């Protein structure tokens, strides 16, 4: 305790907590940049990290949509799937609009082109869904998006003549590197860069005036609208924006970067619920929290497949072994559920919130909630500033 | 064992008039004020009682008994459906099946619907008319009668009543059926003369399974009506209710056999109360710990918190069950030793025969259990003090608190009851379906469809919604033009209705109108 | 958030991470083991959406084989006794997770060989990686024709990845195209004219359905194919559709697994569609698990099913022993994929002993190709491989590194609550146990 106090005051006096926070963040990024060069690590570790980055993008963009904008969507995985499936179908079949006389052969579309088109289509569907959802709130919105994503999954599964059904659909490989080690290295940096870029863009959005409007909308849509926030525009905007992010992430991840093919099972409600759980555990209102939550949760879920408790003092079990091995099986998911429920009840801002708060030196997320807003000068000025 | 022919027909013949008589005497005794408020005369009530009793038996009588306001709408709908059916039959025979304009007609419907849905509400707002249901009416109308809807609704901006929408909706349904009949003449749903039997069979399938679906949906709607939240743990509570029943029956009969030394098996019906009690306690405890703070102002943004916390609860239940019970399919013994009820084939004219109609015995039994439980709940809600207190809390928390009702207890009671209903339907279905820990997922999706269709918070709505969803799924799978895809898309049919209802009329059939 | 909470919280987080030291101390028996151990990776589905039920049975069989080998002082190579260790990789039934699991097995756990695989999609996605890394592999359950096949792997929109055959992958489960003909020939021998085929829309159901449809139609049989989605519970509407069709089908063939298959069979029986005097009910290997089958399909008497793997009446001593052990552990009959997984471990262990090495992939593969070993499912051998590389004209590509003898039979229950051990084998004739090729419902052989 005493040491921590001394440490805290030292930091406050000499560096400043915020700056210290940036230093730590920089160190973490440096670690991720250095990691693939660690020769003692195998390609498997990189694979785990690549899929960790992907889920971090999914989780943090969901945090933007649900935590910051208050649009509680279960359709996130479906938008990811739209990005990936459209990219795959275009790369395989090309684009044909018989009535307009347009026919583009698949050979003339590059992998990048198909990814871009996939992303745009995901954004377009996001636009339509966002527009349709304008009238729906909270539970209705959640139910509608569940229905939407289930419909999409069933279609992908049943129309196997086009989509490959449960065998999945291969996308055109984005990278053409034959050497496995080098390829994995490039894939790692590509996915990491994508995560950083997505986080930066989302962070920028969340902290721009648009972010303020989104938060105002989340707290009270009618009040925000009365104060001059164009609710319709921003609601649709946030849907389009996050759909494009996950569409892009999906199209890239399944272009043989993280996985070789996308399967409809990936779009099940269970997978979506895991994304939500990661974001909740990491902190729904913090983009970095949600990203880190996804990364850490995935690691822990993977690492706790088998829990080995070594007995101390040379004790042995009746069968002579010195360690107690517990195959966790489904129990680890049950425990995950417990953690999620207790996080929600007792640490609403996520398990990583205390750390983020400490670094920022002030209470970040709580300030934005209704009850505390009254006592906060910064936010008292908000309505006037944007009241045009 | 299969009960066939005469017995079932006799039952049908005896049951119809019996229920009709009951309906005739029972309905006018409904709280007079209620009927008067809806301007329904005693004679209408009597006639409705006879018709509903004869056609739908206990379901019809019960429905009208508790919701007399339904009578007019039901009569109207039934009339229109009958007209549509007959006229489309006529039309199919007149129109040349090779008409190419058919495709254009199919495309035109949604197009006009979208146009109307975009422009008409604006017009209503512009003239400051009540635009409550305009969107729905415009979309339905655009689909049904194309550009004519603009003429009808643009200049006049008439007040949109439910009757309006029923007429337009039925017209749309008529179009779909006709187009279907033209383009897919060999489909069993339209190919005379078997289609009458076939449609009856599928409708019966739908009603039987739909009544079972309702039981689960009623729990969901009850929780919503009192607490204003949607429970995302409902599917898992349904699943775990089935398992409680299964393990109780398994171990209960083992224990009894050991005690008495004789082979004793317990009828699965006893699993229902056991599962109900255990899950009621589970639900109530969960509510006390995790949902109570929500109503005390300790939680920000309650509706999202409620979604997530119930979701996490369900996640926990599902994986704990998987860890304990394992992934192997299980199933309880059947309720009754009758494999199916069958209405035998009856030759009516030379070329037209009716039947056979099959209903699986256990399902029929479960349907009865489900309906009895729903009406018991309606009785509890409408005729007992606690039930009235629950309804009062759902209508106005503050006012209820003033009259001495403790809203906190009512919250706990509602969540416990809602969870209990899910568990009861689980216990009622485990003799019918093979049970695995993820069995709740499909079922709960359907429950959401039902409650939204019936109107979140309305118990009779959930009953009717369940039957509608059952029928739509049965007809959808049964009439899909491509038989190989029909079954695979079965779940999707309900989801399409769901999306349409949410978009066009989020309050559903009986939901409270937004103010 | 005060500091105390922060400490409590950080402490909990650290404690959670500290709980996960990896490494295991094993009991030493009577044998002198070498310091080094041989590791074999078991790639099985242990989480949804994979088939958990199949995965845990395979995992059990693989570990059972390993403990049996270790009890006999492990694998003897050049006079040393090497302990056999099993590392489990969870494929979760998904190609993506399967690839990650294989990568972990190869790179982190440095496995010397791999056995297992339940889902074909996982087999297809991981075989190139296993082959590229030179890991001798024996697949024990994927059915897709292309698994381990020689040079015909086509990826959508991509050039074939393997031109010169897959050197390290073996398969002892049948290819889909080896299963289909048995059932089809049986149905044809019974003279069917109308068949309804109900298939799940997965990588098992669809290829199998396409194959059987083609074979039946080639013989002039009228086939109606229906797709169902796994997880659907109520099939009455679609079954009513079958019932309403003017022609009563002569047979209903189910290519559906899991609880979905059981629901479908039971509802079909309840509605009186099949099995009846007019209509034959043919389901698949899933019905062999008779406890589960009778527990969930009480009306399913007289249903026939295809059985893959050795039939109970032909169980050898090893098979009987394995079945008893499985029944003790799980209270169920041993499924064929558990037997195959058990045998796969023994095939590899034997090959390592023959090759005199556990790390030299080339010699191990050569030793597997030369396998001639009697195990729980019968005698194992491989006709085509690098020792005999030219497949004769007309031999399908999947025969490469394929055990040619997986027994595929049609069995039929004829008594209520009958154990699959006593069920009748009705086809092919050589295996017939009750002297008849179909037991008409209501009669007994």
How is this structure best described in words?
The complex is a heterotrimer of chains A (388), B (515) and C (445). Chain A has 388 residues and is mainly α. Chain A has 18 helices and six strands. In chain A, the strands form three sheets. Chain A has a two-stranded antiparallel ribbon. The longest helix of chain A is centred in the middle third of the chain and has 28 residues, at 180-207. Chain A is globular. Chain B has helices spanning 6-26, 32-37, 42-56, 58-66, 70-94, 101-126, 134-145, 148-153, 162-183, 195-227, 234-260, 271-295, 302-325, 361-383, 385-395, 397-402, 407-429, 440-454, 459-479, 483-486, 490-504, and strands at 2-4, 340-343, 346-347, 353-354, 357-360. In chain B, helix 5 (70-94) packs parallel to helix 9, helix 14 packs across helix 15 and helix 18 crosses helix 19 (459-479). The N and C termini of chain B lie far apart (56 Å). The model of chain B is unreliable at 99-104 (pLDDT under 50). By secondary structure, chain C is an alpha/beta fold. Chain C folds into two domains: 29-174 and 334-399, Response regulator (Rossmann fold), CATH 3.40.50.2300; 176-308 and 414-431, Rossmann fold, CATH 3.40.50. In chain C, the strands form three sheets. Chain C has a seven-stranded mixed β-sheet with strand order 8-7-9-10-11-14-15, sandwiched between helices. Chain C has a six-stranded mixed β-sheet with strand order 2-3-1-4-5-6, with helices on both faces. Chain C has a two-stranded antiparallel ribbon with strand order 12-13. In chain C, helix 11 packs across helix 12 (361-369). Residues 20-28 and 152-163 of chain C have low confidence and may be disordered. The chains are: A mainly alpha (388), B mainly alpha (515), C alpha/beta (445). Chains in contact: A-B, A-C, B-C. Chains A and C meet through helix 3, helix 4, helix 6, strand 3 and strand 5 of A and helix 1, helix 3 and helix 4 of C.
């Amino acid at each position: 305790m005493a040491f921590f106090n001394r440490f805290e005051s030292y930091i406050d006096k000499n560096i400043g907590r915020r700056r210290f926070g940036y230093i730590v963040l920089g160190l973490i990024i440096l670690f991720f940049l250095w990691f693939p060069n660690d020769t003692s690590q195998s390609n498997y570790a990189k694979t785990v990290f690549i899929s960790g980055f992907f889920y971090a993008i999914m989780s943090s963009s969901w945090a933007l949509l649900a935590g910051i904008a208050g649009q509680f969507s279960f359709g996130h995985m479906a938008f990811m799937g739209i990005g990936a499936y459209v990219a795959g179908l275009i790369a395989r079949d090309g684009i044909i609009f018989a009535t307009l006389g347009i026919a583009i052969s698949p050979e003339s579309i590059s992998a990048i082109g198909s990814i871009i088109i996939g992303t745009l289509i995901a954004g377009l569907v996001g636009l339509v869904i966002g527009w349709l959802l304008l009238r729906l709130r909270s539970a209705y919105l959640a139910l509608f998006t569940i229905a939407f994503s289930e419909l999409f999954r069933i279609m992908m599964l049943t129309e196997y003549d086009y989509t490959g059904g449960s065998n999945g659909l291969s996308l055109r490989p984005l990278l053409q590197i034959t050497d496995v080690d080098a390829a994995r290295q490039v894939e790692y940096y590509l996915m990491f860069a994508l995560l950083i870029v997505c986080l930066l863009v989302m962070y920028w959005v969340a902290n721009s005036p648009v972010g303020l409007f989104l938060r105002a909308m989340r707290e009270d849509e009618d009040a925000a609208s009365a104060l001059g926030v164009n609710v319709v525009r921003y609601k649709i905007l946030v849907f389009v924006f996050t759909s494009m992010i996950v569409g892009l992430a999906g199209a890239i991840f399944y272009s043989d970067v993280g996985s070789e093919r996308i399967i409809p099972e990936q779009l099940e409600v269970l997978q979506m619920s895991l994304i939500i759980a990661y974001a909740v555990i990491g902190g729904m209102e913090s983009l970095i929290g949600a990203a880190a939550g996804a990364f850490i949760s995935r690691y822990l879920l993977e690492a706790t497949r088998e829990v080995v408790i070594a007995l101390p003092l040379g004790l042995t079990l009746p069968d002579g072994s010195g360690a107690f091995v517990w195959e966790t099986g489904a129990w680890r998911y049950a425990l995950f559920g417990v953690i999620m429920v207790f996080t929600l009840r007792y640490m609403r801002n996520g398990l990583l919130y205390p750390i983020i708060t400490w670094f920022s030196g002030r209470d970040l997320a709580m300030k934005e909630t209704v009850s505390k807003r009254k006592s906060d000068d910064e936010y008292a000025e908000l309505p006037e500033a944007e009241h045009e | 064992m299969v009960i066939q022919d005469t017995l079932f027909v006799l039952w049908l013949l005896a049951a119809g008039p019996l229920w009709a008589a009951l309906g005739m005497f029972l309905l006018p005794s409904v709280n007079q004020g209620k009927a008067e408020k809806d301007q329904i005369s005693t004679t209408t009530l009597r006639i409705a009682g006879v018709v509903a009793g004869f056609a739908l038996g206990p379901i019809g009588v019960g429905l009208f008994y508790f919701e007399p306001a339904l009578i007019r709408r039901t009569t109207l709908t039934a009339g229109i459906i009958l007209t549509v059916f007959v006229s489309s039959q006529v039309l199919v025979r007149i129109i040349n099946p090779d008409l190419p304009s058919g495709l254009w007609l199919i495309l035109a419907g949604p197009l006009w619907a979208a146009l109307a849905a975009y422009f008409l509400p604006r017009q209503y707002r512009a003239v400051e008319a009540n635009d409550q249901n305009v969107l729905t009416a415009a979309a339905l109308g655009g689909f049904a009668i194309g550009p004519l809807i603009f003429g009808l609704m643009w200049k006049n901006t008439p007040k949109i009543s439910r009757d309006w929408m029923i007429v337009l909706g039925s017209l749309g349904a008529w179009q779909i059926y006709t187009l279907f009949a033209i383009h897919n003449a060999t489909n069993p749903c339209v190919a005379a003369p078997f289609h009458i039997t076939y449609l009856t069979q599928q409708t019966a399938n739908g009603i039987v399974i739909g009544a079972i679906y309702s039981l689960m949906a009623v729990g969901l709607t009850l929780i919503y009506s009192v607490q204003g939240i949607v429970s995302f743990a409902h599917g898992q509570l349904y699943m775990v209710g089935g398992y409680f029943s299964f393990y109780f029956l398994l171990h209960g009969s083992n224990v009894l056999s050991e005690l008495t030394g004789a082979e004793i098996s317990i009828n699965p019906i006893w699993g229902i109360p056991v599962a109900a009690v255990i899950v009621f306690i589970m639900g109530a405890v969960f509510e006390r710990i995790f949902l109570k703070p929500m109503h005390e102002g300790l939680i920000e943004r309650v509706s999202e918190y409620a979604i997530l916390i119930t979701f996490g609860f369900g996640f926990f239940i599902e994986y704990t069950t998987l860890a304990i019970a394992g992934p192997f399919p299980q199933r309880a013994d059947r309720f009754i030793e009758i494999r199916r009820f069958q209405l035998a084939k009856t030759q009516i004219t030379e070329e037209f025969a009716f039947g056979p109609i099959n209903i699986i015995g256990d399902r029929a039994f479960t349907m009865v259990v489900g309906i009895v439980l729903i009406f018991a709940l309606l009785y509890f809600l409408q005729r007992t003090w606690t039930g009235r207190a629950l309804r009062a809390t759902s209508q106005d928390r503050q006012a209820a608190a003033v009259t001495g009702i403790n809203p906190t207890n009512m919250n706990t009671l509602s969540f416990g009851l809602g969870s209990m209903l899910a568990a009861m339907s689980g216990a009622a279905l485990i003799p019918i379906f093979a049970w695995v820990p993820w069995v709740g997922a499909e079922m709960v999706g359907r429950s959401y469809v039902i409650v939204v269709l019936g109107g979140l918070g309305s118990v009779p709505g959930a009953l009717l919604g369940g039957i509608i969803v059952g029928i739509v799924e049965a007809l959808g799978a049964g009439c899909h033009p491509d038989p190989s895809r029909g079954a695979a898309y079965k779940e999707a049919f309900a989801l399409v209705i769901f999306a349409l209802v949410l978009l066009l009329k989020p309050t559903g059939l009986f939901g409270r109108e937004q103010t | 958030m005060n500091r105390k909470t922060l400490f409590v919280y950080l402490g909990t987080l650290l404690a959670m991470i500290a709980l996960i030291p990896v490494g295991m101390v094993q009991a030493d028996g009577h044998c002198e083991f070498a310091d080094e151990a041989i590791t074999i990776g078991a790639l099985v589905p242990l989480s949804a959406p994979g088939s958990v039920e199949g995965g845990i049975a395979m995992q059990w069989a693989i570990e059972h084989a390993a403990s049996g080998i270790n009890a006999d002082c492990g694998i003897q190579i050049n006079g040393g006794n090497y302990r056999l260790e099993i590392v489990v990789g969870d494929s979760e039934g998904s190609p993506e997770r399967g690839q990650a699991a294989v990568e972990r097995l190869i790179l982190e756990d440095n496995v010397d060989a791999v056995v297992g695989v339940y889902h074909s999609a996982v087999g297809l996605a991981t075989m190139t990686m296993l082959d590229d890394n030179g890991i001798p592999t024996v697949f024990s359950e994927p059915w897709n024709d292309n698994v381990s096949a020689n040079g015909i792997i086509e990826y959508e929109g991509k050039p074939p990845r393997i031109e010169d055959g897959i050197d390290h992958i073996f398969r002892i489960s049948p290819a889909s195209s080896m299963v289909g003909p048995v059932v089809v020939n049986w149905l044809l021998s019974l003279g069917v004219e109308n068949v309804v085929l109900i298939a799940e829309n997965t990588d098992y159901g669809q290829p199998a359905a396409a194959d059987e449809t083609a074979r039946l139609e080639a013989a002039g049989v009228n086939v109606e194919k229906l797709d169902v989605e796994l997880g659907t519970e109520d099939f009455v509407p679609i079954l009513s559709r079958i019932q309403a069709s003017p022609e009563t089908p002569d047979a209903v063939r189910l290519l559906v697994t899991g609880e979905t298959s059981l629901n479908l069979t039971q509802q079909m029986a309840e509605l009186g569609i099949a099995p009846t005097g007019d209509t034959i009910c043919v389901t698949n290997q899933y019905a062999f698990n008779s406890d589960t089958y009778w527990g969930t399909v009480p009306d399913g008497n007289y249903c026939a099913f295809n059985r893959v793997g050795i039939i109970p009446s032909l169980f050898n001593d090893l098979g009987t022993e394995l079945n008893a052990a499985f029944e003790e552990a799980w209270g169920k009959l041993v499924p064929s994929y558990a037997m195959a997984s058990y045998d796969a471990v023994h095939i590899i262990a034997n090959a390592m002993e023959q090759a005199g090495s556990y790390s030299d992939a080339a010699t191990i593969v050569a030793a597997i190709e030369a396998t001639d070993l009697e195990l729980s499912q019968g005698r194992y051998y491989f006709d085509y491989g690098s020792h005999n590389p030219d497949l004769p004209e007309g031999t399908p590509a999947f025969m490469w590194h394929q055990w040619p003898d997986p027994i595929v039979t049609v069995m039929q229950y004829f008594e209520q609550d009958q154990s699959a051990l006593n069920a009748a084998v009705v086809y092919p004739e050589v295996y017939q146990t009750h002297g008849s090729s179909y037991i008409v419902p209501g009669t007994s052989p």
